[in-house]
Here is the input.
Amino acid sequence: MCLTEKKRENQLLILYASQTGNAMDAAERFGREAERRGCPSISVLSMDEFDPSELPNKEAVILVVSTTGQGDNPDSMKGFWRFLLQKNLTEDWLKGVNYAVFGLGDSSYQKYNFVAKKLDKRFSSLGATPIIERGLGDDQHPSGYEGALDPWMSSLWSILYQRNPRLLPNAITPDDTLMDQPKVQVIYHDTEEGLSPMTTSTDFNYLEMQLEKAHSMNPAKYSGKNRPDCFLKLTKNNLLSQVESGKDVRHFEFEAVSCAIDYDVGDILEVLPGQSPEALDAFMQRCNLNPESYITVVLTCFQVQVQARDNENRGFQKPSSPVKLKSFIELTMDVASASPRRYFFEVMSFFATAEHEKERLQYFASPEGRDDLYQYNQKERRTVLEVLEDFPSVQMPFEWLVQLVPPLKTRAFSISSSNSAHPNQVHLTISLVSWTTPYKRKRTGLCSSWLAGLDPNQRVLIPAWISKGCLPPPPPSLPLILVGPGTGCAPFHGFVEERAIQSKSVTTAPVVFFFGCRNEEDDFLYRDFWLSHLQKDGVLSEEKGGGFYVAFSREQPHKVYVQHKMREQSSKIWSLLSQGAAVYVAGSANKMPADVLSALEEIVSNETGVPKEAASTWIRTLERAGKYHVEAWS
Amino acid sequence: MGQDKLLVITDQVAVSISAVSDAIKKLRKEDVVEVDPLIITQATSDSLTSLEFSSIDDVVSLFKTLEFPSDQLLGNISRVLKPGGAVLFHFDSQTIGEQMKNPSLEHELILAGFLDIHRESFGMKCKKPSWKIGSSFALKKTSQVLPKVQMNDDDDLIDEDSLLTEEDLKKPQLPSVGDCEVGITKKACKNCSCGRAGDEEKVKLGLTMDQINNPQSACGSCGLGDAFRCSTCPYKGLPKFKLGEKIALSGNFLASDI
Here is the structure.
C-alpha cells in the first residue's frame, strides 16, 4: 500500500453487510440523505463488493452491519472481516480514516449487536478515528432499528459537516422538497428486436436468456447472481408428514435438465421461486402495464456519471436486447411477498392524487409515523400489491417501480441427497412456511407454497444455484456426531447416503445421528430410511459403531428434545469425541444450537471430570479446528 | 508381537536392511530380525490394493521423493491399517530439511483421518483412530486431561472475541422485566417458542356479526382499509368497505375467536 497516495477528497463511502436486506435499506437511506445534503461523491457498497485493502485511502466511511444467527456476521461480511482480523495489520493502518458504525440487532439475543461492536473496536484499534459513538439499532424497540437510526444519523451529519463542510455542503438546509429522480430509464420497444428469427429449440435456453437479460437490467441487488448454475425439473413432490398433523413437510426430487449437476453433501441449493399468475396480472392491471410490451432498462445519464466518477464498475450499463415486460416483472420484482420499505411510501406520496392518501403516505414516511408504518407494513408483512391496492389513487411510474419494488430473492435449502447416490438429481426436504399475521390474516411463504403446489407432470423449469453452506462434506474416515431435528435432518440424509456408498470401497468411520420431531405418527421424517440404516451393516448400525436416537417431543407430558437424548448417550458421544469426531448441527429454531452446545459441554465435563469452563473452552477449540459446524435457519 | 504384520513401503527400487531396521526401531523399538516385515518397493498409490483392509498393524514409509505421499496413498494406508495402528513417515536425510518446512503436513494427515500426529527428527508419526466397533471403553472418569485438538495454521488472525469488553458481554437490558403482556413494547422473537407471538395475534377486539353486516365508523376511516385504521380499530385485517354495506370476507381472513 502506497502511503503517499492522497486520500480521495470529499468522498463518502458507505459499506454494508446485510443478511435480509435491512442493513442494505439503511445504507441506501444514508446514501440518499447524503445526496440531499449535497455530498459530491457517494458510494454505497456491500462489503463483498469492496476490497478492504483500499480502506486506508478513504476519508470517511460509514459501516452498516447486521448481526445474524447466533451473533454471526452476515455472509457478505466474511471475507472483509477475515481481512481485518489479520495479525499483521498495524495500529496505524487506518490512521486518518474517519468512520462510524451502525449496527442492526435484537436485544433479546445474548449476543446483541456483536458484529457491530467487534467491528467498531477493530477499526479503532487499527487507528481509525470515530466520528461518533457506534449506533445500535434494536428490533425490540417499538419502531425497530429506525428508532435508533434517525437521531444517530442527525448527529452524524452535523459532526461530519463541522469537520469538513465541503463533504456535505447542504447539511444545514437539506433538499427535502425537491424530489429525487429515478435511477433508471425504461425504454419501450415494439417487438423483441435482436432476437434471431429462428426460435430457440429448448425451453430452458429461452428462460435462461430472459433471466439473464432481466437480471442484468435490474438495478436492485437481487443477490448478485446472474446465470443460474442449472435449470431443474421437478420429478417428485411427496408429502412426508401426516395430513392431520397440521404440518406440511415434503420431499422434493429434481432432475437437472440444462447441464450435469455437481454438488457435495452439505451444500445448499438456491432456487428462484415463481410468482402466482393471478398476483402478477393483478399487479400489472393495477399499475396500468401492458404485459406484452418489450422493454430495456438502463441507468439514467446522471447515474452513469455518478458510477463512472466513483470508478466502481457494477457491470450494469451495457444495454441488452429487449425483454418482455411480464417476464421482467415475473423474474426480478417481488410483487406478492416481500414488504416495501419506507422510501417506497415516501415516493408513493408524491404520486397520490387523493388528498387523504397523500397525507397518510407522508405520515407513514415521517419520523412520527414510523411506529404506525411498522404495524401496518413490516409487522403485518404487507405485500407491494396490497399496499398499492390500499392506496388506489397512486399511479407510480414504472421507472420508480423497477427501482423500489423489492427484488425477487432466491431461497436457500440444505440439499438432502448425495450426488453419488443420485446422479444428476438433487433432493430437498421443505416444510411449508405458514403463519397468521397480527391482523389475523393467513399467509404462506412464497417459495415453500409455490413448490408445494407444483405438479411433476407440468414441465416447470426452476433456475437454481449451488453454493457452500456451513457444513463441509466429511471424509469417510471422520467419525460423526450429527444432530438434526425436524427438517434439520435434510443434509444428514445426504451424509448417510454418501457414507453408505463410500463404505463399499473404503472403511468408513462411525456415524451417530440424533433426530427429533413431535411424534412417531405425524412427522417422523424419512423413518424407513433411518431404520434401514440401523439394520446390519447400515451406516448407523451397531456393527459399524453407529447409532440413531429420536426425541419425540410430544409423546409424553414433558418435552423431550435432542439434547435430552444426547445426554442419555453421554459415554458414546464422549468416546467418539475423544477419537477426533466432528460435530454437525442443523435445523431451525434459535434455541436448539445453543441447547445442543450446552449438552455437549455437560457431557465433556461429566465424562472427563474437568470443570464446565474447561469443557466449554475445549469445544470452542473444536470449532476453530473445523470440527464443529452449525447450519441454523429461521 | 509375534504374528504382527508390519508393512514397509518405499518408492525406491531397492532398500537396505539397515535403513529398514533403523526405521522400524524408531517405530517399535525392536530389531528387524524380530519381525517379518512385508516390503513393497517402487510403491505407488495403487500398490496397496492387493492388501486386505485392516490387515496391517503398523506401516513404515521410506519415500525418497520430496513430495509427501498423496491423498490417495494416505487413504490406502489408512484402509489397510488396523484401528490403532501407527504410521511412520521416514523422510530422506537429504530432503528432510525442505520437507519439514511444509506447514501443511499435519493438515494432510488430519484430512486423511489420522490422529496423534507428531513431527519427529526423522519425519512424521501418526496413528489410525482405534475406535473398536462394538467394544466398550474403560473411561478415565477422573482424568483432568482433554485430548489435544489438532489446529490448522489459521493462527495468523487475532481472536475476535478479544474485541469485546465486559460491558459488551453482559446480557443486554431488556425493556421492563416481566413484560409478558402483549403490547407495544417487547415484541415476540422471530422464532417465538413461548407462545408470545400467538398471544400477540389474539389481542384483538372481537367483531360481532352486526358489525360485519352493518359496519359503522365514528371516525370515518375504518372503511378505507388497514392503511387508515388506528391500532384499536375493530375492523383491522378486513378488506375495505362502504359504511352500512356488508363486508365481504375474503378466504384469507380468519374470523376472530371470541
Chain B touches chain A through 66 residues (CB under 8 Å). Residues 5 and 56 of chain B are 5 Å apart (CA to CA). The radius of gyration of chain B is 37 Å.
